[in-house]
Write a structure and sequence with these properties.
alpha/beta; Rossmann fold; 2 domains; 5-stranded parallel β-sheet; globular
């Protein structure tokens, strides 16, 4: 398992960093097993030699993997959103095993260990269902294990919290109505002292609730202090690590900060070891999400062509 999209902030300037990221993107989108998986869904797909043409062809293809749109009738009962956890599509065993293999190669499975010995900030990302409990729990485990002395901040928003997000194993208080309240509850369960802060980020678009990038932006606007340091650890779920790190990348480049991302290990979900990973279809959906975020990044920097100093 390789961490494709982290920023070690070791290069001398922005243009060198962007080139390095684009090199990692190129390795990601030309991965032979990823291309083979695409061809399992579209026999007519062909690789393009020119990087941006190849990326555009993959972007167009990934509509096939937009299972959130295909299953739009399976919306959250309360919020009306197409929730990730409601996606459900089955494949034959051989194809499923191939999806899991590619997911591991591309960093959607197995990314659980941080790369640095210490961090200045640990950002715990809010989410759906049990993630608001498991992500703070893993943050606490890493802090205890490595003696991290970072500032601990939860990034969330006022997304309506749906009763369907309670599961048999993980239940929230009945008075919790918003995602940021669920994340705050997750922190309360595992942190003895309130040495953390949970942010309720506003949306940059009044037509929707705040997304991950809105929470990153709000953190840098309200909490980030260059005097504290410039090493950041994001804590999420393994499956979302490439997608969310690509979303964070431009912030890290513009602010000249180093960052890493990890997802909680499956054993903290189920101590019996029975739980392994998400269903295969959800990895296809997150391959798509990552590719779209890669496109956003490349367009933001015009593929590195226009940077000048």
């Amino acid at each position: 398992m390789k961490k494709y999209f982290i920023n070690e902030n070791k290069l001398k300037n922005k243009i060198e960093t962007v080139k390095c990221v684009i090199s990692s993107i190129e390795e990601f989108i030309y991965n032979k097993d990823f291309i083979s998986l695409i061809k399992d869904f579209d026999n007519g797909f062909t690789e393009k030699e020119v990087f941006f043409e190849h990326l555009e062809s993959i972007v167009s293809f990934t509509d096939v993997w937009d299972y959130r749109k295909k299953q739009s009738e399976k919306v959250s009962l309360k919020t009306g959103e197409r929730a990730r956890w409601l996606i459900n599509e089955k494949f034959d065993k051989g194809l499923e095993e191939k999806i899991f293999f590619v997911a591991k190669e591309l960093g959607l499975i197995g990314n659980i260990e941080p790369v640095y010995k210490n961090y200045d900030y640990i950002l715990v990302l809010g989410g759906g269902r049990e993630t608001n409990i498991l992500r703070p729990r893993y943050a606490k485990m890493l802090i205890d294990k490595y003696k991290f002395s970072a500032k601990i901040i939860g990034l969330s928003c006022d997304r309506l919290f749906d009763i369907t997000e309670n599961t048999e194993k993980f239940r929230y208080r009945n008075d919790i109505k918003k995602e940021y309240e669920a994340l705050e509850y997750g922190f309360e369960l595992c942190f003895d002292e309130k040495n953390y802060k949970v942010l309720n980020a506003p949306s940059s678009d009044k037509r929707r609730r705040a997304n991950s990038k809105d929470t990153y932006k709000y953190f840098f606007e309200t909490e980030y202090d260059e005097g504290v340091g410039n090493k950041i650890l994001l804590i999420s779920s393994q499956i979302y690590a490439p997608y969310q790190s690509m979303g964070f990348m431009s912030f890290s480049i513009e602010k000249s900060v180093a960052f890493d991302i990890v997802g909680y290990p499956y054993y903290i979900y189920d101590e019996t070891g029975n739980y392994k990973h998400a269903e295969a279809v959800k990895y296809l959906q997150e391959f798509r999400s990552t590719i779209l975020e890669i496109k956003n990044f490349c367009e933001f920097y015009n593929y590195g062509r226009d940077l000048c100093y």
